[in-house]
Amino acid sequence: MKAIQTKNIGLDLGRFQLQSVSTAFPAEKITAIIGPNGSGKSTLLKIISRLLAADAGEVFIDDMNVKMFRTKEFAKTLTMLPQSKELLLQLTVRELVSYGRSPHQKRFGYKMAAADEEIVNWALEITGTVKHADRMYHTLSGGEQQKARIAMSLAQKTDILLLDEPTTFLDIAHQFDVLEILREINQQYRVTIVMVLHDLQQAVKYSDYLVAMKKGNIAAAGVPEDVLTSAFLKNVYDIDAKVKYEDGYPLIIPAIGNVAKDGTGG
User: Fold this and answer.
1) What spatial distance separates the first Cα and last Cα of the chain, rounded to whole Å?
2) What's the rounded Cα separation, in Å, for the pair 165 and 177?
3) What is the DSSP pairing of strand 56-61 with strand 2-12?
4) pLDDT above 50: residue 266
5) Main location per UniProt (predicted)?
6) Could you tell me if 155 and 161 are in contact, meaning their C-beta atoms sit under 8 angstroms apart?
7) 238 in the Ramachandran plot: left (φ > 0), alpha (ψ -120 to 50) or beta?
8) b/e map 47-62, b = 16+ CB within 10 Å
């Protein structure tokens, strides 16, 4: 079953173009969008989430064109967490997470019902941020801030969660914390997750499906072991490397002298 489908998405931003992008993201699975910098990964997420309008093509969620959703109904269907940005708002973590309930309230600033409070508490618990609930958000480390932002997204309680580079700028421990939280959300609550990742090994380990992009096009799509191959690395990243899988985890072994493009080795 396809949770999200794009058909012939086109966008011309001058120096960059999306070119008739058609792909699908399976329901109740984790999909990682991978590819070199500037390949269109974040742009595609923004189009799916209606943060950016395409010049051509259509996006469907459960066979319904996203243009047909009312704004509030769309916010109850899909959550988009953009790339991490430093927030200096004077908010506690609990107050930040509570913003996730906004689409479910009658009006902004309306006192939350007990059911909303329970969902906020659930989001704090499952992300391990409940211990920081009364701390000011801007005093947290980068990793804890990202968990709080994910908690806010989870409090929105949608069936689809999009995340743009959720592990960028985090140390390795917090990267794995975040990815483990997302896997738990997917496995326990069957939330469809689509995330942009740069680390190919993490993408394989934590995803059921990969969509690879290159220069505004879909370069490959499928289960991780079918996508991430030596031929794929050469075609998409221009890297000569072997890929060996051990217990489902890829080991990428660059060829000797692969780094230098001028043939001088090093």
Assistant:
1) 48
2) 14
3) antiparallel
4) no
5) membrane
6) no
7) left
8) bbbbeeebeebebbbe
State the Cα–Cα distance between residues 244 and 174, nearest whole angstrom. Answer: 26
What residues does each domain of the chain span?
Answer: 2-87+157-254
- Per residue in 49-105, pLDDT (tens digit) is 999 999 999 999 999 999 999 999 999 999 999 987 666 678 999 999 999 999 988
Cβ contact 43:26 at 8 Å: no
- Percent of the chain's residues with pLDDT above 90: 82
Give the pLDDT score at 216. 96
Q: Is 0.90 surpassed by the pTM of this model?
A: yes
Q: What CATH homologous superfamily does 2-87+157-254 map to?
A: P-loop containing nucleotide triphosphate hydrolases (3.40.50.300)
**CB distance 124 to 151 below 8 Å:** yes
Residue carrying the six token digits 């804890």: 144
Structure tokens given for 41: 């990964």
* Cβ pair 17, 214 in contact under 8 A: no
Q: Which residue has the tokens 């309008």?
A: 53
Query: How many CA within 13 A on the CB side of residue 187?
Result: 10
